[in-house]
Design a protein that fits this description.
This protein has 9 helices and 8 strands. The chain is α/β, with parallel strands linked by helices. It has a domain of 112 residues: P-loop containing nucleotide triphosphate hydrolases (Rossmann fold, 3-Layer(aba) Sandwich). The strands form 2 sheets. Strands 2-3-1-4-8 form a 5-stranded parallel β-sheet, sandwiched between helices. A hairpin with a 5-residue loop joins strand 5 and strand 6. Helix 2 packs across helix 3 and helix 6 packs across helix 7. The protein is globular. The structure holds adenosine-5'-diphosphate (2 copies) and zinc ion.
Length: 215
């Protein structure tokens, strides 16, 4: 299964990708996670990427495309993968197409999660990530343990620097301008499936799995 999860910041891409990974035993490829790891490691690429991420803008296409190209060549991607947060621009989508041709692979489906702007802001402001195991949660919708720690490992929960309201607004704008056009791009290729992302996490997961059965 080779899938793209498309949707604005906070739509639930990471949450749903993690569940799909468990269900289909294929890797989740999150460019956001890979970029944050590079920031943490303070590699030259991470230092460059951080400027864009902190402002809520996009990291240059060439950087992100390079990361994904390398990742898709790894052995664990042969049986399928879930792209989470990539592509985000038309040039990225065109490059992905070429990478997949080179690897003799084809996409099965592009799932676009539909969520209202108000709900997105609420999801992002309440999003927390475990500093130890990296799993995500939400203060209200997917709550931590009673003592406020990660319910999987007891680790400390942290808020992403870019999940503050001003940056969130900019990320929404960037999504509308640069990423939303990908819906038409994939619709024209007959790959787009829109899924209502407003329901509970498990209901959305069921809808995605139902959509994937048809492809
Ligand atoms: P979100 O939860 O908003 O979807 P991500 O974790 O996917 O966020 O991405 C966080 C940030 O990393 C983005 O705001 C952007 O700066 C950068 N980023 C992630 N993926 C890409 C990409 N495909 N192209 C450019 N920048 C990216
Ligand atoms: P994205 O990767 O698209 O930015 P996430 O998967 O990180 O989005 O979800 C953003 C926040 O919203 C997280 O805190 C997550 O726990 C929460 N969340 C995800 N899906 C739902 C849902 N269906 N209903 C309520 N909250 C959700
Ligand atoms: Zn944890």
């Amino acid at each position: 299964m080779k899938i793209i999860l498309l949707g604005p910041p906070g739509a639930g891409k990471g949450t749903q990708a993690a569940l799909l990974m468990g269900k289909y035993s294929i890797p989740q490829i999150s460019t956001g996670d890979m970029l944050r790891a590079a920031v943490q490691a303070q590699s030259p690429m991470g230092i460059e990427a951080k400027k864009h991420m902190d402002a809520g803008g996009l990291v240059p296409d060439s950087v992100v495309i390079g990361i994904v190209r390398e990742r898709l060549q790894e052995d664990d991607c042969r049986g399928g993968f879930i792209l989470d947060g990539f592509p985000r621009t038309l040039p990225q989508a065109d490059s992905l197409k070429q990478v997949l041709v080179d690897l003799d692979q084809e996409l099965d489906s592009v799932i676009s999660l539909q969520v209202d702007t108000d709900a997105l802001v609420e999801r992002l402001t309440g999003r927390r990530t475990c500093a130890d195991c990296g799993k995500g949660c939400h203060l209200r919708f997917d709550p931590p343990a009673q003592d406020g720690s990660c319910r999987y490992c007891g680790g400390e929960l942290v808020q992403r620097d870019d999940d503050r309201e001003v940056t969130i607004r900019n990320r929404m704008k960037v999504y509308q301008e640069q990423t939303a056009p990908l819906e038409d791009y994939y619709r024209e290729q007959g790959l787009l499936v829109t899924v209502d992302g407003m329901s509970d996490i498990s209901v959305v997961q069921q809808a995605i799995q139902a959509a994937l059965q048809d492809c």
